[in-house]
Each structure stands twice: as C-alpha cells, then as structure tokens.
Design goal:
By secondary structure, this protein is mainly β. The protein has strands spanning 2-8, 10-13, 18-26, 31-39, 46-52, 57-59, 67-72, 77-82, 91-99, 105-108, 112-117. The strands form two sheets. Strands 2, 4, 5, 6, 9, 10 and 11 form a seven-stranded mixed beta sheet that branches. The chain has a four-stranded antiparallel beta sheet with strand order 1-3-8-7, with no helix packed on it.
Length: 118
C-alpha cells in the first residue's frame, strides 16, 4: 500500500503561479512513476503530467510550456510547478503513482483544490 500526501494548491488569479507537492510512503518499490491528475466536477479525470523513475516526463498538451514536473526518487516526492495559470486549470489535483507491474496509475491521493480566477 502506498500513501500519498499532497500539499500546495489554493487560489490564484489568472497568470499567476502555484506549486503542488506530494510525498509517498509505504510500499514505494511498487511504483515507477509519479504524476498528477486533475478533475473538474462532471468531467473525466485527466492525467496532467508524470515523471518516471528515470526522469522521463510527459505532459498533457494543454499544460505544456506552463507546468513543470520534477521528482526526487530518494525522497519519493513529486512537485508540479504551475505558471501562467488559466481559469480552465481550475480543478481538484490528485497525486498519483504508477504501478510498476500493471503500468497503471492505480493509487491516488486525496486531492487538493486549485482555483484560478479570471
């Protein structure tokens, strides 16, 4: 079992910046990537970005150039730096880990709200 604790988030005006952080504990050898999902009520959860244990990063198109994901394998942490935020970035953001056996992001944190006002 992996436990994820998120921090950061909050309210910001459009064009501003926020940083999300997440720390994993427990069975940390069970995953090989960490990332962030986001979800708006009534919409599907979206994978925003992730970073693998070999530091390969992937971003959804809508955040490329604005968000940066980084990780610390030794500390089992991941950070998402968000800049040039837009109102459409408003969502609950969830930290997630990818199971190394299944290749699925099957473990999510409790989520943290990000609100971007216009």
């Amino acid at each position: 079992q992996v436990q994820l604790v998120e921090s950061g988030g909050g309210w910001v005006q459009a064009g501003g910046s926020l940083t999300l952080s997440c720390a994993a504990s427990g069975n940390i050898v069970s995953f090989n990537a960490m990332g962030w999902y986001r979800q708006v009520p009534g919409q599907q959860r979206e994978l925003v970005a992730y970073i693998t244990s070999t530091n390969i990063t992937k971003y959804t198109n809508s955040v490329k150039g604005r968000f940066t994901i980084s990780g610390d394998n030794a500390k089992s942490t991941v950070t998402l730096q968000m800049s040039s935020l837009k109102p459409e970035d408003t969502a609950v953001y969830y930290c997630a880990t990818r199971n190394r056996m299944s290749g699925v992001f099957d473990n999510l944190g409790r989520g943290t709200q990000v609100t971007v006002s216009s």
